[in-house]
Amino acid sequence: MHWFMSRGYMASLPLDQASYDLIVESDGGLMRVQVKSTTQRDRYGRSYVNIYRNGYDSAVAMNPAGRRKRRAYSACEIDCFFVLNGARDVYIIPLAATAGKTHLTLDRAYAAFKM
User: Fold this and answer.
1) How many structural domains is the chain composed of?
2) Do the domain assignments include residue 94?
3) What is d(CA 29, CA 51) in angstroms, rounded to the nearest whole number?
4) Which whole-number Å values give the CA distances from 68 to 48, 56, 62, 85, in the listed order?
5) Domain-located, residue 63
6) CB neighbours of 71 closer than 8 A, spacing ≥ 6?
7) Which residue range(s) make up the domain with 46?
8) Interval 1-32: pLDDT, tens
9) pLDDT of residue 67
10) Cα separations (Å) of 112 from 9, 68, 93, 97?
11) Sheet holding 10-12, edge to edge
């Protein structure tokens, strides 16, 4: 919230359980923001972040190991990800740019979304 508000945007928390962490009022309207952070790095030193959602409702089946299945977020749930890595780099990545992935490597493909 602080990051958005320090830049002049209004940020709010949902009052009930939601698939997003923040609602941000921007010049383009309201955005549903899912916040992710990571200190993980791949073998090349690039930041790696999990952006999946665990299924906790009866509509999401368990995997063979008895764990909830990981699934990508959909456009009816969020508009973008706010990602903070261990180097304190901030990325605002639109859901459409993730192409249904459940994890991202923050490399050249996402450089345009680095703030």
Assistant:
1) 1
2) yes
3) 23
4) 21, 7, 5, 26
5) no
6) 52, 53, 54, 55, 60, 102
7) 2-56+68-113
8) 999 999 999 999 998 888 899 999 988 899 99
9) 66
10) 21, 33, 9, 11
11) 10-12, 22-26, 29-38, 80-85, 90-94
Please name which of 92, 57, 54, 59 lies closest in space to residue 72, comparing C-alpha atoms: 54
Read off the pLDDT of residues 56-112 as tens digits, 9 standing for 90 and up. Answer: 655 556 666 666 678 889 999 999 999 999 889 999 999 999 988 999 999 988 999
Q: pLDDT tens, 33-59?
A: 999 999 999 899 899 999 988 766 555
| C-alpha atoms less than 13 angstroms from C-alpha of 41 in its C-beta half-sphere | 6
Q: Are 33 and 14 in contact (CB under 8 A)?
A: no
Position 35 scores a pLDDT of 95
CA-based nearest residue to 71, from 84, 86, 85, 60: 60
Q: What one-letter code names the amino acid at 34? A: Q
| Residue whose token pair is 């994890």 | 103
